[in-house]
Amino acid sequence: xxxxxxxxxxxxxxxxxxxxxxxxxxxxxxxxxxxxxxxxxxxxxxxxxxxxxxxxxxxxxxxxxxxxxxxxxxxxxxxxxxxxxxxxxxxxxxxxxxxxxxxxxxxxxxxxxxxxxxxxxxxxxxxxxxxxxxxxxxxxxxxxxxxxxxxxxxxxxxxxxxxxxxxxxxxxxxxxxxxxxxxxxxxxxxxxxxxxxxxxxxxxxxxxxxxxxxxxxxxxxxxxxxxxxxxxxxxxxxxxxxxxxxxxxxxxxxxxxxxxxxxxxxxxxxxxxxxxxxxxxxxxxxxxxxxxxxxxxxxxxxxxxxxxxxxxxxxxxxxxxxxxxxxxxxxxxxxxxxxxxxxxxxxxxxxxxxxxxxxxxxxxxxxxxxxxxxxxxxxxxxxxxxx
Length: 387
Fold this sequence. Notes:
By secondary structure, this protein is an alpha+beta fold. Helix content is about 20%, strand content about 30%. Strands 4, 6, 7, 8, 11, 14 and 15 form a seven-stranded antiparallel sheet that branches. Strands 1, 5, 9, 10 and 17 form a five-stranded antiparallel sheet that branches.
């Protein structure tokens, strides 16, 4: 497809690809996955990236795109095959690699939904995936081939918040449109990017998309190489360069990452996989964030750093962890190496007791925000970033 000189490919939806929780039933066969995507940009065509970065073996996938009702249904008669490698209706993705589809002609307006459906005909390792949540982050699966079916059979389908293989959707859109990346861990895999999408759509006039690149349990400096914590994913030096580079049309990245570096280590007498040697100093964490900044600058991105949220009451909370969190946050607030600070911490903490969440902002585990807090995070992002 020849690109119009006034148009460009821009990411309109995205996820990190990390490691799915290892279970005995780690393979699927004869399975359809369906993911409704709310578009923040209008355009004339789409293409998708399928990613097997964390897989141990090749996977073979067929795919389709359709207009969507925003749930498990697609609009009758709108489904079309997504092809790869100049017209092939099936693609095999080697372990550790990803593929971009051929362009698919599909005219869509900002605010509409499209659905991407994937069909796994043969036994497929379900390893390259990410778990996300929020009002716009719903997936579905069904036993059987329903690539072009208007609905999924109730008795053979269910919901899922695991997004397998689908890492990016790009749209051929106006050259002035752009994307903003939200990078992080389980906090960002939670709902605040979805609420930011809704806010952005309401004020940007369909010229800005929000791309989430978040994986629960991940740390800046360390990763686990064992089956117990396999799904805690890849460390920042592996994740960040790869994930950020894949986002088309991006000019800003919001980074809110690092709390797991602080709360995970407990000592081998408590957990043999979580030694005290994994606990970083504030300077080590800051150096890790500086590496993020350095790479983002190479791509010409503006960088906004989000402060780390309160953790008092979390099961591994201790005064030394609070001191470490505060030291990192102090640097985030005062550094001139980024383009700005988004002070999520002060937006959500109890002003009388800043090491803990304010009332109604704690999900209950003293680490993850509540629904209201996630909404507050979305409105803490300065408007200039999402216009």
